[in-house]
Amino acid sequence: MKQLFKQSLPHIVAVAIFFIASYAYFSPLIEGKGLKQHDIEQFRGSAKEIMDYREATGEEPLWTNSMFSGMPAYLISTRFEGNKLTFVDHILQLGKRPASFIFFTLLGFYILMLVMRVNPWLSIVGAFAYGLSSYFFIVIAAGHNAKIHAISYVAPMIAGMVLAFRGKYLGGLALFGLFLGLNLNAGHVQITYYAGFVMVAMTIAYFIDAAIRKEYIRFSKAIGVLAIAGILALGANFSRLYFTYDYGKDSIRGATELTSREDDRTTGLDKKYATDWSYGIAESFNMLIPNLMGGSSMGDLGTDSHTYQFLQDNGVPKAQARQLVQSLPVYWGPQPMTSGPVYIGAIVVFLFMLGLFTVKGSFKWAILGVTILGIMLAWGKNFMPLTDFFLHYFPGYNKFRTVSMILYIAEFTMPLLGMMAVKQVYDGELTNERFMNGLKWSLGIVGGICLLFILMGGTLFHFEAEMDQMYIQAGYPPELFGAIRTDRAALLRADAIRSLAFVLLGAGSIYALQYKKVKPAYFIAILGVLIVADMWVINRRYLNNDNFENITRVEVPFTPTNADKQILADTTLYFRVFNLTVSTFNDANTSYFHKSLGGYHGAKLRRYQEIIDHHLSKQNPKVVDMLNTRYIIARRGESIVAMQNPGALGNAWFVDSFSMVENADEEIEALNNFNPAREAIVDRRFAEFVPNESLSPVDSTDLIELTSYSANRLTYKYKASSERFTVFSDIYYPKGWTAYVDGEKADHFRVNYILRAMILPEGKHEVTFEFKPKMFNAGYTIDLVSSLLLIVVTLAWVALDYFKPLINKK
C-alpha cells in the first residue's frame, strides 16, 4: 500500500495542481460570477425554443422555427440520450465551466506525457506547456465552448493510439476509444478532423518503425485494435454524426444547385466563406512573438502610447482619449478581425526547435511534416495552390470554415516534440556534443528570429491595416494613424524582446540541467515557472476578470425592447419577425423572443442562405410576405419600433395558379416577379405532385388556419369547395417532416424555392406536419450499445491494471 501511494503521489499532486491553476485563472467563478461569452449568448438565443420545449415535454424537438424561418436542431442543441459517454464527460469535466475545460486539457496532456514515458513531475510541466496555449483561452473568451471541449480530449485520445502501437492493446483500445468517443460527443468535428492529421502522421511514423524492425504483425494488431475502438467511438456518437452528415448535405456545407460564381464553388463551402479567416504568412511568427501584428483587433494601447499623446496634443480630453486608445484598431494583419494571436510560447517554440536537432527517428519527421502542413494550410487564401488542392481533393476539408483553426496542429505538436527533447536531457540520453549542437542551432534560429524583429521589425513592415482607411473615411485624422502605426511597431519590438528573454532563460535552464549545474527537481520547478509566467501573462491580455459579470446577466443575456414587448403581446399562434435593427443574419437576439427570419449559425440551410443572398438581404417584399412576416422591427429616429406587415400571408393559403421552372436558377429568379398570394413557383422535379389542368379560382368561403403549434408538430384545419393547391409558410425539409391528412400520410413537395406545398382534397379536413426523422430511434440503440461497451472495456482495463501487481504476487 505504501508503494502504491508513492507511485500515485505525483498523479494526485498533478490533479491538484491542475485544479488549483484552473480556478486561479478563472477565480471569479468561485465568487459566483459568470463568463460573458458572445457565442454562448447567441447560443442561448438560438436554442431558446428548443430548451423551452425540452423543459415542458421532456422530449427533443429536433427542429426549431426560431431561426432562419425553421431549421433542424441537430447542430444547435440536441441531446442524444443513448450516448452514455455524456455521464463520463460530466465526471471528467470536474467543476464549473470553463475552468473544467482547461483542467482536463492539462490533465489530458499529462496522461499523454506519461504514456510517452516522461517523468511524472516533468509531465506536469509538459501539461502547462500545452494547456496554456493562448488560442485555448481566446476561444473560451469568444464562447467557442464546443471547440475547447473537444480539444481537451485530443491528447489522451492520441495517448491511446500510442499504447496500441506499443503492444498495450487493451489499454490502447480503452483509452483511444473512450476519448475519441468523448471528443466526438463534444460536438466539434472540425477539431477531430484536424487531430486526425496528427494521428495519420504518427501512424505513418509507427509503420516505418515497424517496417524497419519487420514487426508487421504487431503493427497490424494495433491497427485492428484502433479500428475496433474507432468503430465503438463512432457508434457511441452515431446519431450525432449521422444527422450532422445528413443535414450537412442540405446546409451551406453542401453543394449548391445554382450555377453562378462557379469559380468560387466547391462540393462544400464556397471558397471565400471557407477562407475568410486565413492566417498571414508573416503572421505565423506570432506563435513566437504574440504582438507581432498587434494582438487583438481592439487592443488597449495605454496612456503611455504615441496615440494617447497625439490625442492629448490635439486637445482631446483625458477621459475621452483613454476611451479611444481602448477602441482604435491595433491588429494590422490580413484577417478581417481577431481576438488574439495563436501564441504557443517562446520557450515551447525553442524546445520544439531543440527537438528537431536532438530527437531521432521517424516520429520527429512525422511531427515536423504535419506541423509544417498545418501552418501552410492555415494560410488559406494567402497560399491558394495548396488550399485549392485540399478544398477540391481532400475528403471533408471543404466542409469547414476558418482555415486558421488548423494551427491547432502546431499547438499540439510543438509542445509534444519540445517535451520529448526535454525528456532526453532529463533522462541523460544526450551526449554533451549532441546537446550543444542542438542548443546552438535552436537558440541561434529562434533567438535570431526574435533579434531580427527587435532590430529590423520597424523596417520590415508598414504596420498599416485595411481598417485604418475605414476610420479615416469616417472622419478620423490621417495623422492619428501615423501615431497608431508607431505604437504597432513598438508593440512588436517589446514582445520580441520579451520572447527573446524567455528563450534565453529556457535555454539557460536546460543547459544547466545537461551540465548538472542544477538538480533535476529544481530544473522542473524552474522550467514550469518560466512556462507558466510566459503564457499566463499573455493569456490575461485576452481573457481576464473583466470578462466576468453577474451570473444572472450571463444566463439571461437579452432584455426585450419596447418593440419586442409589443410583439410578445400579440397572441397570434405563430408568425415571424424581421429585425432590421441588428445584423439580421448574424444575430440570435431576435430568436430569443420571436420566430425570426434571421439568426446566428454557421450551418444554416443552403437554400435559405441563397434566399438571404438573393432576396431577404434586399428586403424583397414578396419573399418577406410568403414567410409570414407579421412584424418588421426598424429604427425610426432614435426609437426602435415594431411595424405590422399588412402583406404577411399567414401560416398557409390557397393559390389558383402555378408556374413550372426548369432548375434552381429559374426558381430563385422567379421570386422577383410573382404574386405569392395567388401563384406558386414549382420546380419541374415536382411535376408529378401538381394537377395537369389549370386550377380553379379560390372561393371566398375557402379557409385554412393553424390550430396547434409546437416546434415539431403543426396542425391545420381547413375547408375547401374543391381540390386546392395549398402553400405553407414553413421550410421544406423532407428528411423528417411528414404530412398527414386526417391521420393518413400524404404527399407534400417544395414550392417557392424553400416552402412546403400540398394538393388538398375538397371538404373539411385536418392537416398535420410532424418532424420525426426515421433514424432517431435506431440511432438511440446504436449509441447506447456502443457507449456501454466502451465504458465496460475502460473499466475492465482500469481494474486489470490496478490489480495486476496483486495477481503477479500470487
Quick summary of this structure?
The protein is α+β, with helices and mostly antiparallel strands. Helix content is 53%, strand content 11%.
Quick tags:
single chain, 810 residues, alpha+beta, 3 domains, five-stranded antiparallel sheet, four-stranded antiparallel sheet, 30 helices, 18 strands, 53% helix, 11% strand
Descriptive overview:
The protein has 810 residues and is of the alpha+beta class. It has 3 domains: 32-72 and 558-650, no CATH class; 82-255 and 263-542, no CATH class; 652-773, no CATH class. The protein is 53% helix and 11% strand. It has 30 helices and 18 strands. It has a 5-stranded antiparallel sheet with strand order 11-12-18-14-15, with no helix packed on it. A 4-stranded antiparallel sheet has the order 8-13-17-16, with no helix packed on it. Strands 5-6-7 form a 3-stranded mixed sheet. Helix 16 (346-358) packs across helix 22. The two termini are 16 Å apart. The mean pLDDT is 91.
Structural class: alpha+beta
Count every beta strand, where a strand is a DSSP E run of 2 or more residues. 18
Q: How confident overall, as mean pLDDT?
A: 91
Number of helices: 30
Which parts are unreliable, with pLDDT below 50 for 5 consecutive residues or more? Answer: none
As laid out across the biggest beta sheet, the strand order is 11-12-18-14-15
Whole-number total of structural domains: 3
Main sheet properties: 5 strands, antiparallel
Portion in beta strands? 5-15%
**In percent, how helical is the residue content?**
40-55%
What is the alpha-carbon Rg in Å? 30 Å
Choose one word for the global shape.
Answer: globular
- End-to-end separation in angstroms reads 16 Å
